[in-house]
Specification:
Elements lengths: L3 H21 L9 H21 L6 H17 L3
Helix pairs in contact: 1-2, 2-3
Length: 80
């Protein structure tokens, strides 16, 4: 059995690396804390996954992608 902490770490590290890269490349504000934003994104993904599994009649993959897109768009739009 894989513990949630290990799964979280597996997702956290690549997310933080990508966010740090995006900040260095000017795609995201340079002042963002990559580890913090990766944690926020991971929690958002976990919540979307729970919603999709537990309420499939009220949610859809398109809805989840729109929520995720809104989050990423808001991050990129922060004043830098």
């Amino acid at each position: 059995m894989v513990t949630p902490v290990i799964v979280s770490a597996r997702l956290q590290e690549p997310l933080a690396a990508r966010i740090a890269y995006a900040a260095r490349a000017g795609e995201l504000p340079a002042y963002l804390d990559a580890e913090h934003e990766a944690a926020r994104l991971r929690v958002l993904l976990d919540g979307l996954r729970v919603e999709l599994v537990t309420t499939p009649r009220q949610t859809s993959a398109d809805w989840a992608l729109a929520v995720l897109d809104d989050h990423l768009t808001a991050l990129a739009a922060l004043p830098g």
